[in-house]
């Protein structure tokens, strides 16, 4: 293999994926979006002999470049308890990046097989990659981290299009827009007629301008928070994950939460939000009557205040104890704590909160990261919490904030649209890496899609009040490594968005368009050519 062939076969696909990854926040190198166009060129000319196999390799390598940059921070979680899990850190990144890259390899094969060579190939490529991104978000519970449509900083002009077509629809549009400039590259093939390329570029520019214009129009109607709305306090105590494994620090951690909860304010908060797994206990026994922990929490609250906290919750079933990663809602009465409701996490993190194929992996020394029983059990499908005296709340516990349509599904199942999304997360697992910053951006898209404000609480950052346009409200956020509180009025919910009404129908229409073009200009054309080609 010559150096030129090696560069084209190995180096350029990795570069394409890396460029696309660097377009995501917190890097924000938007010219990196051209990496999708580079991948389209490479997959389209996958090479002689075995073009589908070559296309798969180039798509897979592009995925490796993309996901290695996007998920390298996963290794941090395995270094929290380095003696037990440290050896798995490099393997976690290798297998995660390499595994999800299979979807990109399949997308390249699908595009190469379609065989469209005209300017319409941009839409065929966008359909092939975006449908595989949808599958990545659904197969084996799914892992929709850093969807291409979520490249745009949440709250920006272009990101507002997610309120119409959702993150998957925006993924199709983003890939199509990013790949269109690649039509200018002609390579060694017969030059195309120039006017289709000019038309395609013009349409892409008009579409991008239209998306930005829609975003500007949408943001121009932003309203301030309702002065009569509830005051919400978000508590971020800065508790690193390794501190939670030290039993000697239990009282110190709880006291940190309580002191911030009881901190004086010009206006008393009605709702106080603690992050996922705030109190480092294996169950919610610390809330049992008569315990000093319950008495301490009671003392930190004033009558009528509501505490919403992430917590482990246990139930006795048959001969075993079953654990849930939960969100618990408590109200301070004159003399006690009253539990108003609870939500059990539905989407669990594989290898983090439960171990798939545990009978095979446990003998190999592989265990889930959460040191609680045999891991967590999944709760029922999402439904919002309808509680007296509070807005209708849709909880999203950590990983659940990655899933487009999760809140919409809960609203449709219950018949109640939420007025508030509460995302409690434990991003302390990932230290001061890019992971928590990316997570903030991805979670904020759920606010855009639904037109519903979001409270985001983490122990080490980033915690924020997020308005229904996906923007962290100025002055109402705490960055990584900060300790403190955010007191903010709840922003007003918007009228139902297009995505809340239509769901994934626009995305399905995009895929149908892509499939139709692939058939008309690719598959059908090849079949007609085969029929008229004389056989000797």
Layout of helices and strands, plus pairs?
Elements: H1 3-22, H2 34-44, H3 51-71, H4 74-79, H5 82-85, H6 89-114, H7 121-136, H8 162-179, H9 194-220, E1 231-236, H10 250-261, E2 271-273, H11 292-300, E3 306-317, E4 320-332, E5 337-344, H12 358-361, E6 393-397, H13 406-414, E7 420-424, H14 435-450, E8 454-457, E9 463-466, E10 472-478, E11 484-489, H15 498-502, H16 505-532
Parallel strand pairs: 1-2, 2-3, 6-7, 7-8
Antiparallel strand pairs: 1-11, 3-4, 4-5, 8-9, 9-10
Helix pairs in contact: 1-2, 1-3, 2-3, 2-6, 3-6, 6-7, 7-8, 7-16, 8-14, 8-16, 10-11
Please tell me about this protein's structure:
It contains 16 helices and 11 strands. It has 536 residues and is α/β, with parallel strands linked by helices.
Give the key terms:
single chain, 536 residues, alpha/beta, 6-stranded mixed β-sheet, 16 helices, 14% strand
């Amino acid at each position: 293999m010559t150096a030129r062939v090696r560069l084209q076969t190995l180096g350029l696909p990795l570069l394409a994926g890396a460029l696309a990854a660097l377009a995501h926040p917190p890097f924000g190198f938007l010219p990196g979006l051209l990496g999708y166009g580079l991948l389209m060129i490479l997959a389209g000319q996958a090479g002689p002999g075995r073009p589908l196999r070559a296309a798969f390799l180039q798509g897979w390598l592009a995925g490796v470049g993309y996901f290695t940059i996007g998920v390298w921070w996963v290794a941090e979680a395995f270094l929290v308890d380095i003696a037990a899990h440290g050896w798995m850190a490099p393997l976690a990144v290798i297998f995660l990046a390499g595994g999800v890259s299979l979807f990109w390899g399949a997308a390249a094969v699908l595009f190469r097989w379609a065989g469209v060579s005209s300017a319409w190939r941009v839409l065929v490529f966008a359909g092939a990659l975006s449908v595989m991104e949808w599958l990545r978000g659904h197969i084996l519970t799914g892992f929709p981290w850093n969807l291409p449509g979520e490249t745009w900083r949440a709250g920006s002009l272009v990101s507002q299009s997610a309120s119409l077509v959702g993150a998957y629809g925006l993924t199709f549009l983003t890939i199509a827009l990013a790949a269109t400039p690649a039509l200018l590259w002609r390579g060694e093939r017969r030059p195309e007629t120039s006017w289709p390329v000019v038309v395609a570029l013009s349409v892409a520019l008009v579409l991008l301008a239209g998306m930005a214009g829609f975003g500007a129009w949408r943001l121009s109607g932003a309203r301030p928070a309702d002065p009569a709305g509830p005051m919400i306090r978000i508590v971020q105590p800065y508790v690193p994950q390794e501190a939670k494994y030290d039993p000697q620090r239990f009282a110190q951690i709880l006291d940190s939460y309580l002191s911030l909860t009881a901190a004086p304010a010009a206006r008393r908060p009605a709702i106080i939000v603690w992050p996922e797994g705030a109190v480092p206990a294996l169950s919610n026994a610390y809330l049992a009557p008569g315990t000093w922990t319950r008495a301490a929490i009671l003392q930190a609250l004033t009558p009528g205040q509501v505490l919403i906290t992430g917590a482990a919750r246990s139930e006795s079933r048959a001969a075993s104890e079953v654990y849930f990663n939960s969100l618990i809602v408590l109200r301070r009465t004159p003399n006690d704590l009253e539990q108003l409701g609870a939500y059990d996490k539905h989407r669990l993190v594989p290898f983090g909160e439960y171990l798939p194929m545990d009978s095979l992996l446990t003998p190999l020394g592989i265990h889930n990261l959460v040191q609680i029983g045999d891991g967590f059990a999944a709760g029922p499908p999402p439904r919002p919490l309808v509680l007296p005296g509070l807005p209708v709340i849709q909880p999203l516990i950590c990983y659940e904030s990655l899933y487009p349509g999760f809140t919409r599904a809960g609203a449709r199942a219950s018949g109640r649209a939420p007025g508030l999304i509460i995302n409690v997360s434990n991003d302390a697992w990932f230290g001061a890496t890019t992971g928590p910053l990316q997570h903030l951006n991805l979670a904020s898209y759920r606010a855009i899609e639904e037109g519903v404000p979001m409270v985001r609480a983490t122990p080490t950052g980033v915690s924020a009040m997020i308005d229904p346009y996906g923007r962290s409200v100025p002055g109402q956020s705490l960055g990584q490594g900060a300790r403190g509180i955010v007191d903010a009025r709840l922003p007003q919910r918007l009228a139902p968005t297009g995505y809340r009404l239509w769901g994934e129908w626009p995305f399905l229409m995009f895929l149908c368009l892509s499939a139709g073009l692939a058939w008309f200009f690719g598959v059908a054309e090849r079949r007609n050519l085969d029929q008229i080609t004389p056989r000797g």
